[in-house]
């Protein structure tokens, strides 16, 4: 309490209590046992109609590469011993090809233990029950006329389809398990016939080994045929490539001497001549340019190298020198007009004229030599260019020639390799072929089925049925959104619970709660109401509460019956009590008492009647009451009016116990306007029905409105069912023993 008023407290989280789980299981033990029996029965029915299955096993060793009898590698190589080989061979064993060969070898198409079309129909327990039910009710399964599923198929198509169907049936019972640590493969076959299981498992191993030998023989034979054909083709290809090489050599005119091309040798010589010619042309050009330069300078040509090097010029110069010397001697001996002088002068003039003529000849000859050197140089360059063009053409042809030579060499090597391999393959015959697997453990006829294991299946079914029942019981307990005990009510709401109101016993069925309390106050119901009234009287140590407001969260929770029962019990003990029906919207007090509702509280509050006109006496219980009266459009305003508060004060002066029956809180807010005008508020919660969220929301509303909550009441309690939830403090007895102890 805070300030004299009770406020809701936050309920502390309770630790996990195994007794709560055990209690939930005990309360629903019949449901759990029922689910267990149902699961056990269904498992028995299911296992009884299952067809027993037998399993046979064969162990096959996958061998690695073996030593060759001859030192020649075989065409069909042996298997590599590793994990992937086991997986691969397991897939081969479980292939449709192997399965089809086993079906043909064992002639399983005519075996009734294997062919479902030849097997007799199996009549299990479910089939018997189904047939019996159809016979009793006259139902037909529509199978009186048997249709041919192969209608419209040719004979070959029918046989092929039937064989594929039998292969599918065979594969459905075959399992191949490769070992993870050894080169072993386990073949397992499952069938409802033990003999067929052993025969099929051994047949798979035999067909697999024979298939390996046949495959190796076919590979060797096909390899020999292919190599022979390939050798013939390669021989012809080699001959054709050699012919193409010689023909191209002739057409291209490629001539070589000791591996050196003649064109290249000629080009090398021409290069040397061209260099020499260019040197000579440069020398001639230099001499010619020198002479031309001296001529342009107007003399001094005699100093040119070509002139100086000329032997004729040198002889003429010597003669000229001699003549000049003779002329000088004559000048000292004779006069200028002397005939000897004239003769020498003429001789000198002739010599100089000859020298000039020879110099001119040398100049002309230098020009001619320069032209000849240039012509020779151009001729050599042209010839070299022609040879280089021929060499380029020959180089292009040489590329093709080398390609043809490489082709000839490659064809020759390939032909020799194929011929050698063909001879080696011919040595390795079928007699030397060995299978890469062998059977190390054959299958025997199993003596007992491995499926179904009825005891284990029924035990598993019982376990899961029990788990389902336990889980369902716990889920139902967790999904239970109502209140079962007063402890639960206190724990969730955080408010005190002052008691409970049980449902009426069989002998009291048809009677009203207040009537039973008035007639038999010592009954179980009477003691429950007395316990509630005592808790209210003891809720305050100073002043006993007179005005008590009874409300609930939703309609039909028993608040009107509880309010009348509290008033009836108070009147039965000699206390002046009165009950007011404050539900002005949907009045129910007059219906419970079986009286009229012509004049009541609404008439008094609206000033249409006096207090003496609305107070009535219930003769069988001795309590007074005020019914709701006529319906009004504004009930909240009337209940919160000063006239209502004055009425309560006036009644408190006359009566010792005033009980207000108010509307539910979540429906309307009428009760909230009265909570501060009363001494205590009693909140009624219907057992098992009222949702916890509704109760918490309603208690929060009245607490926030400032009400002094006297406690919560659990109404309409089935004590026998509630006894499964254990002892409830505050009631004073165990629910299971209470009815016997308090029975009249």
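^ structure tokens above, recovered residues below v
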């Amino acid at each position: 309490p805070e300030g004299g008023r009770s406020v809701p407290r936050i309920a502390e989280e309770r630790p996990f209590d195994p007794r709560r789980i055990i209690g939930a299981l005990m309360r629903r033990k019949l449901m759990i046992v029922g689910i267990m029996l149902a699961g056990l029965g269904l498992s028995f029915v299911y296992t009884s109609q299952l067809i027993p299955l037998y399993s046979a096993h064969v162990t096959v060793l996958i061998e690695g590469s073996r030593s060759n009898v001859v030192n020649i590698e075989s065409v069909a190589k042996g298997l590599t011993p590793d994990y992937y080989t086991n997986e691969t061979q397991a897939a081969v064993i479980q292939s449709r090809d192997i399965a089809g060969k086993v079906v043909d070898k064992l002639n399983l198409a005519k075996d009734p233990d294997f062919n479902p079309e030849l097997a007799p129909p199996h009549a299990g327990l479910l089939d018997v029950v189904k047939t019996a039910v159809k016979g009793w009710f006259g139902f037909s399964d529509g199978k009186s006329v048997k249709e041919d599923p192969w209608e419209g198929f040719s004979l070959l198509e029918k046989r092929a389809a039937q064989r594929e169907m039998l292969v599918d049936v065979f594969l459905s019972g075959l399992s191949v398990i490769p070992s993870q640590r050894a080169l072993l493969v386990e073949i397992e076959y499952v069938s409802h016939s033990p003999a067929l299981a052993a025969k099929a498992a051994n047949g798979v191993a035999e067909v697999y080994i024979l298939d390996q030998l046949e495959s190796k023989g076919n590979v060797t034979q096909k390899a020999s045929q292919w190599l022979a054909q390939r050798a013939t083709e390669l021989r012809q290809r080699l001959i054709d490539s050699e012919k193409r090489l010689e023909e191209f050599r002739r057409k291209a005119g490629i001539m070589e001497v000791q591996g050196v091309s003649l064109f290249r040798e000629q080009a090398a010589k021409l290069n040397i001549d061209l260099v020499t010619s260019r040197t000579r042309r440069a020398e001639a050009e230099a001499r010619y340019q020198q002479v031309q330069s001296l001529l342009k300078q107007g003399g001094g040509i005699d100093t040119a190298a070509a002139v100086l090097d000329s032997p004729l010029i040198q002889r003429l110069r010597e003669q000229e020198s001699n003549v000049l010397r003779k002329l000088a001697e004559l000048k000292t001996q004779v006069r200028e007009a002397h005939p000897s002088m004239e003769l020498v002068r003429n001789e000198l003039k002739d010599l100089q004229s000859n020298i000039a003529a020879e110099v001119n000849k040398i100049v002309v000859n230098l020009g001619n030599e320069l032209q000849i050197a240039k012509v020779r140089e151009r001729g050599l360059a042209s010839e070299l260019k022609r040879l280089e063009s021929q060499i380029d053409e020959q180089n292009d042809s040489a590329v093709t020639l080398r390609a043809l030579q490489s082709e000839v060499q490659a064809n020759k090597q390939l032909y020799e390799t194929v011929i050698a391999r063909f001879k080696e393959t011919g040595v390795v015959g079928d007699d030397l072929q060995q299978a890469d697997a062998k059977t190390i453990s054959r299958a025997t006829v199993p003596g007992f089925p491995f499926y179904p294991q009825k005891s284990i299946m029924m035990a598993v079914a019982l376990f899961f049925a029990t788990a389902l029942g336990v889980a369902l019981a716990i889920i139902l307990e967790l999904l239970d959104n109502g209140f079962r005990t007063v402890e639960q009510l206190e724990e969730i709401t955080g408010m005190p619970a002052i008691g409970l109101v049980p449902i009426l016993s069989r002998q009291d069925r048809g009677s009203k709660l207040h009537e039973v309390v008035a007639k038999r106050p010592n009954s179980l119901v009477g003691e429950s109401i007395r316990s509630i009234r005592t808790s209210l009287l003891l809720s305050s140590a100073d002043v006993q509460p007179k005005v008590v407001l009874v409300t609930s969260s939703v309609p039909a929770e028993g608040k009107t019956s509880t309010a009348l029962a509290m008033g009836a019990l108070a009147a039965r003990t000699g206390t002046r009590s009165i009950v007011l029906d404050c539900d002005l919207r949907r009045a129910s007090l007059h219906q419970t008492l079986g009286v009229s509702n012509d004049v009541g509280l609404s008439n008094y509050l609206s000033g249409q009647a006096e207090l003496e006109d609305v107070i009535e006496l219930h003769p069988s219980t001795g309590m007074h009451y005020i019914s709701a009266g006529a319906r009004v459009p504004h009930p909240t305003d009337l209940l919160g009016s000063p006239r209502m508060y004055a009425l309560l004060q006036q009644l408190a002066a006359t009566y010792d116990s005033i009980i207000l029956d108010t509307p539910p809180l979540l429906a309307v807010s009428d009760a909230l306007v009265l909570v501060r005008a009363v001494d205590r508020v009693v909140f009624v919660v219907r057992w098992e029905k009222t949702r916890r969220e509704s109760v918490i929301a309603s208690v929060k509303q009245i607490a926030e409105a400032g009400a002094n909550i006297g406690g919560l009441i659990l109404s309409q309690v089935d004590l026998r069912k509630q006894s499964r939830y254990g002892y409830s403090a505050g009631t004073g007895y165990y629910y299971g023993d209470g009815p016997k102890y308090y029975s009249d």
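The two ends are 39 Å apart (CA to CA).
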